[in-house]
Design goal:
By secondary structure, the protein is an alpha/beta fold. It has a single domain (1-184, 200-256), classed as 2-enoyl-CoA Hydratase, Chain A, domain 1 (Alpha-Beta Complex), CATH 3.90.226. Helices cover 47% and strands 16% of the residues. The protein contains 11 helices and 10 strands. Strands 1-2-3-5-7-10 form a 6-stranded mixed sheet, with helices on both faces. Strands 4-6-8-9 form a 4-stranded mixed sheet. Strand 2 (18-23), helix 1 and strand 3 (55-60) form a beta-alpha-beta unit. The mean pLDDT is 95.
Length: 256
């Protein structure tokens, strides 16, 4: 349950047959807290059942699209809860019968890349940067690999999973993380959204089933293994050190 009196962390607006879900949690850089994921799932469900909506745009406020997991939640409680919840929200994006389009005008890290990978189309602007930072925290991009590995160039995945290096929008497009890098994301999305407005609801839903088949197969085949892997890592001493060091803004013990 979410607090009805609190300002929403995900805002829903519908205009011109497009539902825009805006991540609006600046205090933690739009991190995937349990509340934000619940509101995002609710927004997706509302957009999915609205017959006037042809597409969903996933946008954000501030300079960060999504910073990944909320580490203040990840360091306590059941280690399987967070990974399992992330699987659910990523699958909700993939299974949404309406095309989901990411508009990225800021930084994305770790789980934020998984959110982009779950979208059908993604446009990234010049302010965007990306990094799989898990390796530097004693973790691995386990759950987010479910939507990403079917889409990413294998050699690029090897490099960026292992190094945690930061890369830009052009590189993100080259390796398959985003559809296109654009100087102006709004302008780049205009012809895409106009085309989606002309499509039939049935045509969109069935076409999306075709293009998402490999991604859903990844969830079906590897979902439980990735949850178990993530839970094991989050519960480890090394990950606790990595996440604590991150929250304390210091190098982890293993850094050289």
């Amino acid at each position: 349950m979410t607090d009805a009196t609190a300002a929403p962390l995900v805002r829903l607006a519908v205009e011109g047959a497009v539902a825009t879900l805006t991540l609006d949690s600046p205090h933690n850089r739009n991190a995937l807290s349990s509340r934000l994921m619940a509101e995002l799932e609710q927004g997706l469900a509302e957009a999915a059942k609205d017959p006037a909506v042809r597409a969903v745009v996933l946008a954000h406020t501030g300079k960060v699209f999504c910073a990944g997991a909320d580490l203040s939640e990840a360091t306590s409680g059941d280690p399987t809860a967070g990974p399992r919840r992330l699987v659910e929200i990523l699958r909700a994006v993939v299974e949404c019968p309406k095309p989901v389009v990411a508009r990225v005008d800021g930084h994305a890290r770790a789980g934020g890349l998984g959110l982009i990978g779950a979208c059908d189309i993604a446009v990234a602007g010049p302010a965007s940067t990306f990094a799989f930072t898990e390796v530097r925290l004693g973790l691995a991009p386990a759950v987010i690999s479910l939507p990403l590995r079917p889409r990413l160039d294998p050699r690029a995945a090897s490099r960026y999973y292992l190094t945690g290096e930061t890369f830009d929008a052009a590189e993100a497009a080259r390796i398959g993380l985003v559809t296109v890098a654009a100087d102006d994301t709004a302008a780049a999305l205009e012809p895409v959204l106009e085309a989606l407005r002309q499509a039939s609801p049935q045509g969109l839903a069935e076409s999306k089933r075709l293009v998402a088949a490999d991604v859903l197969r990844s969830f079906d085949q590897d979902g439980e293994d990735r949850v178990a892997q993530s839970a094991l890592l989050f519960g480890s001493d090394e990950a606790r050190e990595g996440m604590t060091a991150f929250l304390e803004r210091r190098p982890p013990a293993w850094a050289r």
